[in-house]
Specification:
19 strands; globular; alpha/beta; about 20% strand; binds zinc ion
Length: about 600
Amino acid sequence: MSAVAHAEYIGEILVRHGVIDAARLIPLLDTVRERGQTLTELMISTNVADATKIAQAFASEMGMDFVPKIDKDAIPFDIATRLPITYAKQHLILPISEDDTHVYAVCADPLDTTAVDDVRSIFGKPVEVSVAANQQVLDAINRVWEKRDAGQSNLQGDKHDEEDNLVDIIDSDDDAPIIAWVNSLFALAVRERASDIHIEPEERDVVVRYRIDGELYVARRASKQFMAPIIARVKIMASLDIAEKRLPQDGRITLKIAGKSVDIRVSTVPTSRGFERIVMRLLHKTSVLLGLDDLGFAPREYGIMDHLIQRPDGIILVTGPTGSGKTTTLYACLNRINEPSRNILTAEDPVEYEIGGIHQVHVHPSIGLTFESALRAFLRQDPDVIMVGEIRDRPTAEIAIHASLTGHLVLSTLHTNDAASAVTRLVEMEVEPFLVRSSVIGILAQRLVRMLCQQCKVPYQPTQYELKQLGLDEERLAWKQRRTISPRYAVHNQVYEYVGQKMGDEPVFYKAGGCDACMNKGFIGRRGIYELLVIDDAVGPLILKNADALTVKRVAIAQGMDTMRDDGARKVLRGMTTVEEVLAATQEDIIVDE
Ligand SMILES: [Zn+2]
């Protein structure tokens, strides 16, 4: 990539991350062309952008750790100086440590892949890169080379540097190893994208497990003698009562980890071993907000969903068990319609992501701020769109309906297994069926399935049984073809082909392998599988007649609705996930025939 193309690429990223306005970027790019200076140097030297913000944007773009302050004295100079100083300064990259499998480097521009490649070939190992501001990297390079020149004795003298005060304080503290150990648990959890951290006392040691993409993995072990201080440290951080060991407690920690603000909900429960077990849920406030088109909707469901959320009124419900990604979907919907012309209010428990331009309220039932009372207050705030975290009871349901009928779009969630059951759930809450019929416009049910690592997935020929389980056997496909699809579902109707595979060919499925890219798990990340029920002229009358969920579902399928399992089958055929993932996620999904 030429220097100018690289600058344009970097500029586009910085605009997207809000570091610089697109309008201010253009003259800078002209200067880059003329002078051959790098874009980031130019931006920093002319004070157009802050070096730290630039580094943070790079880190977040590349999914790398951001290092606010490099611990210069912890860098072994025999590792750092394997890269020549002129090269290090020119590319602003510095190797900082090494283990059996990787070399770790900090750099100012992770998009400078040449530099990263060179470090890899010098060390003969993959490079794990973190990002710091230009000056930080430059200072670290200078410090390391000074140290090498002056020899080890200089280390003592360095302690007077005021930047190192933090290190001194930690060194002098008796509890320091525990603090550092607990802090590193959080840092590692964020790096590995863990959603939960479990700290559990076992017979001989303390086991720390992370939940990543829905699965638990052992992340660390510590000797049992550290159990009490580890628990005490977490409880202090969460402002819990350290002395109380016999009752469960709940607390909260807010941390900044690698430039990201993370809210952590902490729960302790006493166990028979005499120690408490701790479970912490990580809420990444600044984690990437997904767009509606990142959720993995099939084109047709995407089209219908996008149409529904643009409507001025009505209720859209997202259903599924805890941890099925409902909140992510709601945020993506809000993000899609988030324009200055719309007043968008949300009541959430808790606020998981902060979205600019949207007014988000954290409900506190203990002080009387419930979903219901928040919703009532919202109606006096001249809203266009209201999102309420969950409809749990009749009063909340009734205000949501009232809001919808008085010209507002309402988004919310319900705990039901599938889309059709949401209708009956509302009626069970003693909401009048005609109110449900006249307000609810669409119901999305969803589950998360793990996505196969594309580097190491293994193709195979599915058995007839597997095809039948996914509704991909000839008999069922033929039945689907015979249906008369209602106009509502007919948009983008490309559904029943083997996507990316030719009809008549033997279909190919994939199973998980294992490689470095996926840390030998065979999967990376999760996506939703969806079922979108539109309340139309076929389904509406069933609500008024108090029909059961199965009847509603059967009619909707005959109209053209795909079930979560159908959507899962499509993702299996695309090589995105496995048949096991889809079947496990859709156990309750009854196959409905005509
Ligand atoms: Zn892999």
